[in-house]
C-alpha cells in the first residue's frame, strides 16, 4: 500500500522516501530481519533446483495435465522468489543511503538470479515447440488444461517476442 502526505518515521514494516511517499511493506515482511524473508529465499532456491531436477530434459514432452501442474509450480516458485526482492527494492528505494537495505537488495537480487538460472530451461524447452506440442494434445483434455495455462502462455510468448526470441 502506498500513501502520500507527510513522511512518517521509518518503522519495521514501513519504508519512507524523501518525497513523502510511504510504502506499507508489512504485507510482505515485518522488517528486513523477518525470518520469513530468509525462509522464502531459501525455499525459492530449493524449489527451483527441485523443479529443474524433475522437469529438465522432459518439459516439452509433458502431457497437458502435467504441463498445467508444472506451470502452476513454476509460477509459485517465481512468486516466492520475487517477494523478497520486491521488499528489498522498495526498502532501498525509500532510503538509498541505508547500507543494510542496499545489502539486502543485492543479496535478494543474487538469489533471484540463481532461481531464474535454475528455471530458464523450462521456457526454452516448452516454448520453441508450443504450437507443435499443443497441436498433438487430444481435444477436450487439451482444452481444459490449456485454458488454465492461457495467461502464462500469453505472458511468455509476449516476453519472448519482446526479447526477439
Report on the structure:
- This protein is 67% helix and 6% strand.
- It is mainly alpha-helical and 165 residues long.
- It has a single domain (32-162), classed as Butyryl-CoA Dehydrogenase, subunit A, domain 3.
- The longest helix has 31 residues, at 64-94.
- It is elongated, with a radius of gyration of 19 Å.
| Poorly predicted runs | 1-11
The CATH architecture can be named as Up-down Bundle
Name the structural class.
mainly alpha
CA-based shape: elongated
By DSSP (H or I, 4+ residues per run), the number of helices equals 5
Reading the helices and strands in chain order gives EEEHHHHH
CATH topology label: Butyryl-CoA Dehydrogenase, subunit A, domain 3
Biggest sheet statistics: 3 strands, antiparallel
The Rg value, from CA coordinates, equals 19 Å
Strand order, main sheet: write it out: 1-3-2
From the N-terminal CA to the C-terminal CA, the straight-line distance is: 36 Å
Total DSSP E strands: 3
- The CATH class is Mainly Alpha
Helix content: 55-70%
Average pLDDT reading: 79
Oligomer: single chain
Strand proportion: 5-15%
Could you say how many structural domains there are in total?
1
Amino acid at each position: 500500500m502506498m500513501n502520500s502526505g507527510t513522511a512518517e518515521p521509518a518503522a519495521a514494516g514501513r519504508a519512507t522516501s524523501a518525497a513523502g511517499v510511504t510504502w506499507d511493506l508489512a504485507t510482505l515482511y515485518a522488517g528486513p530481519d523477518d525470518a520469513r524473508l530468509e525462509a522464502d529465499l531459501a525455499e525459492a532456491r530449493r524449489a527451483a533446483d527441485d523443479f529443474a531436477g524433475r522437469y529438465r530434459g522432459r518439459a516439452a514432452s509433458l502431457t497437458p495435465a502435467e504441463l498445467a501442474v508444472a506451470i502452476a509450480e513454476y509460477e509459485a516458485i517465481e512468486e516466492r522468489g520475487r517477494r523478497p526482492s520486491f521488499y528489498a527494492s522498495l526498502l532501498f528505494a525509500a532510503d538509498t543511503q541505508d547500507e543494510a537495505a542496499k545489502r539486502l537488495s543485492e543479496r535478494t537480487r543474487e538469489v533471484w538470479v540463481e532461481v531464474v538460472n535454475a528455471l530458464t530451461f523450462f521456457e526454452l524447452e516448452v516454448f520453441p515447440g508450443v504450437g507443435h506440442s499443443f497441436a498433438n494434445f487430444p481435444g477436450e483434455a487439451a482444452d481444459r488444461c490449456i485454458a488454465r495455462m492461457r495467461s502464462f502462455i500469453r505472458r511468455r510468448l509476449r516476453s519472448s517476442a519482446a526479447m526477439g526470441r
